[in-house]
Design brief:
Layout (H helix, E strand, L loop, with lengths): L4 H12 L4 H8 L3 H9 L7 H11 L3 H13 L20 H4 L17 H12 L8 E5 L6 H12 L7 E5 L10 H11 L11 H13 L4 E5 L4 H4 L10 E6 L10 E4 L5 H12 L1 H6 L1 H10 L4 H12 L6 H9 L4 H4 L1 E2 L2 E2 H10 L3 H10 L9 H8 L3 H13 L4 E2 L6 E2 L2 H14 L2 H24 L22 H11 L1 H13 L3 H17 L6 H15 L2 H17 L4 H18 L2 H17 L3 H15 L5 H20 L3 H17 L6 H21 L3 H17 L3 H17 L3 H18 L4 H22 L1
Parallel strand pairs: 1-4, 1-5, 2-3, 3-4
Antiparallel strand pairs: 6-7, 8-9
Helix pairs in contact: 1-3, 1-5, 2-3, 2-4, 4-5, 9-10, 12-14, 12-15, 14-16, 19-20, 19-21, 19-22, 20-21, 20-23, 23-25, 23-26, 25-26, 25-27, 26-27, 27-28, 28-29, 28-30, 29-30, 30-31, 30-32, 31-32, 32-33, 32-34, 33-34, 34-35, 34-36, 35-36, 36-37, 37-38
């Protein structure tokens, strides 16, 4: 017989009697897993009472029973030198006597990479260890982060600090039936030298005995792959110079008084370093860019990088670029991330299998959400379950590491590879009609809320809760909440707009885009407005509404002029809007179309043509009492003044802008004060610019500061930062260099972030004021 005498004899007796493992386990009162472990040699020396139960269940005679007991006795752990098992109170004499046991640490990886700060944290725990409070470190996180590999590496690194031994137990937390604490305690006690006859039957008593044994020892425990807190608590030392490392895919948030080691994704350079250690520096240096691309396609997930590296190591003639190409085929990425028995999909499947049916549905359907993250509300809509149930499921998914919670907002995200896995499960488990219904349900709800939220920025509306929100109880209240929701859910409502158009709900598309009009004014740096208003134009054409077509073509022209800086496209949209407005006999839209065309012409260098168009627009809008027409007239006059200034007719521009200011101060009947205040701020920016052009710097400062204050208060960076730039220029000319530099620094930084065309001007001005400081310093010296 081999070293597994007991297992082989037990297997022969069981099969000879024609009894299945399940039947024998039931008769003997042991688990099927325990019986399987005995037969395979994983457990070579079971307790005497267990052997007696097996003998009775098998119905063998005393001679065979004695033989089975002798085989079990020979497989039980012994101390160094052949001495018998230690007593319950016994203690080894050091690292040597503690080394012989069946729970030795797994093999460390010679190419283990990164995790320096996390390892330093554990080293600090070991160095400052207080025997009265033996530390417990929980290492948790999403599948594939390398928790076990890190814990094993840390245990090997810290081993010299624990001369009484290092013990590792796989708790099998991802199995359908994780190892019970009672069984784990027995294995630990046996490994620590406690005689089998001294191990009590009850879990609580075994836990107390473990604490007693460890009280006077300096031991490191690695409890790998924990299922939950209840499995771990009985295994923790109470006193003693011990360090316990616990790994789990769950957060084990209920485990008290523990240190948490948060493993994150690898940085790009760390991922490339891991690849280098596995396949060698020559291959990586030869294809440096492909190595970086490979790290990105693996999502900087350690297990994915390990699999890719092992695959390349097994194929020394294969290029990194080939693997990158294979991984880029989006649908095959999980299939490609496989090296022998290592599979990224298997790691994810283990966690997915642990979920409840509702949590699985939320996980799958959440892959339909657009953008980098999503809210519990979106998840509930896609899963078709109540929001509270969806929120509970999401918490379980986050606890299992399958979703990552946002640090401040109630939002969640997938790792790229987990999103691919969720999408795979969606295709396998959900009917296409169910998927389509989920997307339609979510799109309708989200677009209704987006429309209602955007209407809050329409100055003509005063209601506390705009009509049309699908759930008034949770609707955003006020401008700030509406802005936060619209910004956070931007990818969702934009996708919902496209789904509404594809479904033929054209009026809903038009209404949503119209509602977004005022909101777009304060977010002019968003490039998505071209898509929003183009969809509305297409829907208006589908409905045959020339007026709606003119309205949204004008909005589209505004977008090309102010958001995308695409002036030929702006001119084309404005000319199309003009044709539609003429056909619809809409004076207001005609004026707007002429104004937007003028703006594009001026930016294309056709200044004289632009001024002609603006005079034509002003004539179209003059002498009408309709408030909307009056507001359009104000805009046209402001623009006309700008164009006159660009044409070096600044005195005329100043007159036009003074006229605009007077109209604003007089007010527009039927329009709220806040709205007119915004027009006044625009006018004062123009007045300040006129005075700057005339070299009247002292007079320019006041209107610029007034305009800046208004736009800052309204959180309108696309408007405030050009004003801030002009104020910085004015301060420089007033030789107030400290103020100028601070103002220009802020303006430049924000204009760059907005990709505003004036960012280069801001950079030049900042250079000039900095040079002025240098000259002033030399003069002083």
């Amino acid at each position: 017989m081999s070293d597994n005498k007991f297992g082989e004899l037990l297997h022969a007796l069981r099969t000879g009697a024609g009894i299945s493992q399940e039947r024998l386990a039931q008769r003997a009162g042991v688990s099927v897993r325990a019986l399987s472990d005995m037969e395979r040699g994983r457990t070579r020396g079971p307790r005497q009472r267990t052997v007696e139960a097996l003998v009775a269940a098998l119905g063998v005679d005393g001679v065979v029973g004695h033989e089975l007991e002798e085989a079990a006795r020979s497989g039980r752990p012994r101390t160094v030198g052949g001495a018998g098992p230690r007593s319950a109170a016994g203690r080894g004499s050091g690292a040597g006597s503690a080394a012989v046991h069946g729970l030795a640490l797994p093999r460390d990886l010679c190419d283990f990479t990164a995790r320096g700060p996390a390892l330093a944290g554990l080293r600090g725990l070991a160095e400052d260890l207080d025997p009265a409070r033996p530390p417990v470190a929980v290492i948790c996180g999403q599948p594939g982060l390398g928790k076990t590999a890190f814990a094993v590496h840390a245990a090997h690194t810290l081993a010299p600090s624990f001369p009484d031994g290092q013990y590792a137990v796989d708790l099998r937390g991802m199995d359908p039936k994780p190892t019970p604490p009672r069984e784990v305690l027995a294995r630990l006690l046996y490994a620590l030298g406690v005689a089998e006859t001294a191990v009590p039957a009850a879990t609580d008593e075994r836990s107390g005995l473990l604490r007693s044994v460890l009280r006077e020892r300096r031991v490191l425990l690695l409890l790998d792959n924990a299922a939950d807190e209840d499995q771990v608590r009985p295994l923790l030392p109470g006193h003693g110079a011990c360090l316990t490392l616990v790994t789990s895919r769950r957060s084990l948030a209920g485990l008290e008084a523990v240190h948490r080691t948060e493993l994150s994704l690898l940085r790009r350079e760390e991922a490339v370093e891991l690849l280098t250690r596995v396949i060698g520096p020559e291959r990586v240096e030869r294809e440096a860019q492909a190595a970086r691309d490979l790290a990105e396609l693996c999502g900087y997930l350690p297990l994915a990088m390990r699999i890719a590296a092992q695959r390349l190591a097994s194929r020394p003639g294969e290029t990194l670029a080939k693997l990158v190409t294979q991984l880029t085929a989006h649908g095959d990425r999980l299939d490609t991330l496989r090296a022998g028995s290592l599979q990224i999909r298997s790691a994810f499947t283990l966690s997915y299998a642990q979920l409840s049916p509702a949590a699985r549905t939320v996980f799958r359907r959440a892959s339909l959400a657009c953008g980098p993250d999503f809210s519990p509300t979106t998840a509930a809509l896609l899963a078709g379950i109540p929001p509270r149930q969806a929120a509970r499921c999401i918490e379980r998914l986050a606890d299992a590491g399958l979703l990552q919670p946002h640090s401040t907002a109630d939002r969640y995200s997938f790792h790229d590879l987990l999103r691919l896995f969720a999408a795979e499960q969606l295709v396998e488990d959900d009917d296409p009609t169910e998927i389509a219904a989920a997307q339609d349900r979510a799109a309708r709800w989200i677009l209704r809320r987006a429309t209602a939220a955007a209407l809050r920025f329409d100055a003509d509306r005063h209601q506390d809760a705009p009509e049309g929100d699908p759930d008034l109880a949770t609707a955003p209240t006020g401008h700030e909440q509406a802005r936060i929701w619209l910004e956070a859910e931007r990818p969702q409502w934009l996708a919902a707009l496209g789904q509404a158009q594809a479904a033929g709900r054209h009026q809903q598309v038009i209404d949503a885009a119209e509602a977004m009009h005022w909101f777009s004014d304060i977010t002019a740096h968003w490039e998505l407005w071209a898509e929003v208003f183009q969809r509305a134009v297409d829907s208006a054409r589908a409905l045959g509404s020339r007026r709606d077509e003119a309205v949204h073509l004008n909005y589209l022209a505004w977008t090309y002029n102010f958001c995308l800086n695409d002036y030929p496209a702006a001119l084309a949209a404005a000319q199309a809007a003009l044709a539609a407005a003429y056909e619809a006999a809409d004076r207001l839209q005609t004026g707007w179309a002429l104004g937007y065309a003028a703006g594009a012409l001026r930016r294309l260098g056709r200044i004289d043509e632009s001024i002609v168009r603006l005079h034509e627009a002003a004539a179209h809008l003059r002498n009408h009492t309709d408030p909307q027409v009056r507001l359009a007239e104000l805009t046209i006059l402001n623009t006309l003044g700008q164009h006159l200034r660009y044409a070096n007719r600044t005195d005329e521009a100043l007159v036009i802008h003074r006229r605009s200011e007077a109209l604003c101060l007089a007010g527009v009947p039927g329009k709220p004060h806040d709205l007119i205040a915004t027009y006044l701020a625009q006018t004062r920016h123009n007045l300040g610019s006129d005075l700057m052009a005339l070299g009247r710097w002292v007079q320019a400062e006041s209107p610029l500061r007034a305009a800046l204050a208004h736009f800052e208060a309204g959180r309108m960076p696309a408007w405030s930062e050009p004003v801030r730039l002009d104020l910085g220029i004015t301060l420089r000319h007033l030789n107030r260099h400290h103020e100028a530099r601070a103002t220009l620094t802020t303006a430049h930084r924000t204009l760059v972030g907005l990709n505003n065309p004036r960012r280069r001007e801001a950079a030049d001005e900042l250079c000039q004021v900095t040079a002025g400081f240098a000259i002033a310093g030399q003069t002083t010296g």
